[in-house]
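Table 4 source record.
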Amino acid sequence: MIVVPSIYNCGSQQIESYKTYIDFLSKDYEAYRKVASTGKTIFQDLSLLFPVLTSTLHSIKNLFPFPEEGCLDCVIVDEAGMIPQHLLFPALVRANKAFVVGDPQQIEPIIRFSNQMKEQYLTEVFLNQGLTEADYERYSPTVSTAYHRAAGASFHGDNGHSILLAEHYRCVPSIINFCAQICNYKLDIKTQDKPSLLGPNLIAYHIEGEFKNHINLLEVEAIEKLVQHLIDCGYSIDGTNDKAIGIISPYHAQADYLRTHIRKHYPTFTYDSIGTVHTFQGGQKAAIILSTRQCLDSQNLHFINQKPNLLNVAVSRAEELFILVGNIERLTKAGGYTKQLVEYIRQYGDIRELPLIVQRTKKKI
C-alpha cells in the first residue's frame, strides 16, 4: 500500500515551499530566486509531501537546479547498463548515496561513433594526454557504462563486482534458460512451466523473405496473419491484458513499418506494443513476435550476433510465448547467437512453416 500525505496536514511553511516549487517549475523568476537562496529548506519541506520522486537523468538538473550535495538522500538508478557513465554525474553530485541497478548483458548505450572516430577519440583524449588504453576501457563512454563504473569494472568484458539479483520471476523456464545459456547467467528461476495457448513456449516460423527499401514485406504480411492466429487462440492486442502481444524487430525501418501496417489492420493494437528491441528494454508481454528481417545471403547479421545483448533482451521480453519469424536457413548460416536461437527452438520448441500466408505477386512498398 502506498500512502500519499495530504497537503492539508502540512504547516504553512511547507505549503509555501510547495507553492514556491510549483512556481519555480513554471519558470517564475521570483520563485527561482527563492530556490537559489533557500533551496535546502524548500526541498526538505517538499520531501514531506513527496518522499519519492521520479525523473529521467536529463531532467534531474531541472528539478534540482543547484547541485548541492545531499539535496537528495538516495538515488536509485535503473537500467544502468544502457546509460553512458557521464549521464549519471548530475544525479550523483546531488545525492548522499546511490543504488545503481542494471544488466551489462542487456541493451547498451547507442554511441554513434564510427571505428575511425573511436580511434581518434582514444588517441586525442586518452593517449595524447598521458593516459593508457586501460584508462580508455574504464572511462570511455564508447566502452564503459554507468553500470560498469559503479561495479568497478576494469576492462572490456569485465562486469566488475556487484550484488547479483539472481531470482527470475518473468519468463517460463524454457524461455529464460536460452538467455541464461548465451549470457552465462546463474539464475534462480521462480516461474513454473506452463504451455502457451499455442502449445510450445518457443516457436519459429520460416519465411523466405523479400527485402526492399530496408523492409522485409513478407515477414510483415506473415506477422499480420500471425496476429490474427494469436487472437483466435486467446491472446490480445490490448497492451494491458495479461495475454498481450508484443511485436519487435532489431531494425527501426522494419519496426516502424510493422507498426504502421499492423495498426492499419488492427487499429486497437496498442501503439507502444510494436517497436524495436531497444524500445522494449524493461518491458514484457505474454507473447512476443521477433521479426529478424534479414533474408539475403549478402546481408550481415553482425548487428544481432556481435554480442548476446540484443537477443537476450528480445527473448526475455516474452513471459510465456516467444515467436521467431524469419529466414531460418539464413539465421542458421550466420552462426553465432541467431544459430543458437534456432537450434534452441528446434530442441525445446517447434519450427513451423506458416500456413497462414501464401506466395503472392510482389507489391511496391
